[in-house]
């Protein structure tokens, strides 16, 4: 229990506070008990508010669209645009080079690539973030 005068912790058997000398009465014990209850209540309330604050919070959706990537790659695959969009820069550059050096025949690769993207064979972008359907 605590001293009603100064709040110092006193033993139950003590009749007077060791710090300020105030008389410890039974009412003081009840008051201390109520104060403890109040503190526990405010702690629970704080937890509840914190939980409420965290629940509506969602990380910003930075996922890239599978559909956008597939269409870009389908239409502009010779330029690796779909792969650039997903962050696969080295693949995109390779697709450009292959298309150039094969006089356009190699554009079959980015075309097939676009089908794979649209079919869901490419699961993530270059950062490993899953694509949005
Ligand atoms: Zn005291």
Automatic annotation (TrEMBL):
User: GO CC: one term?
Assistant: membrane
- Transmembrane segments in this chain: where? 67-86, 92-112
Please list the residue ranges that the record marks as compositionally biased, kind Low complexity: 38-50
**What InterPro entries does this protein map onto?**
TM2 (IPR007829), Zinc_ribbon_dom (IPR026870)
Which is a Pfam family this sequence falls into?
Answer: TM2
Q: How does it sit in the membrane?
A: Multi-pass membrane protein
Q: Does the keyword Metal-binding apply?
A: no
Annotated region (Disordered) at 30-50
Ranges for domain Zinc-ribbon? 3-23
Domain TM2 residues, every copy: 63-115
Question: Which terms are listed as keywords in the entry?
Answer: Membrane, Transmembrane, Transmembrane helix
Location(s) in or outside the cell = Membrane
Record-given protein name: TM2 domain-containing protein
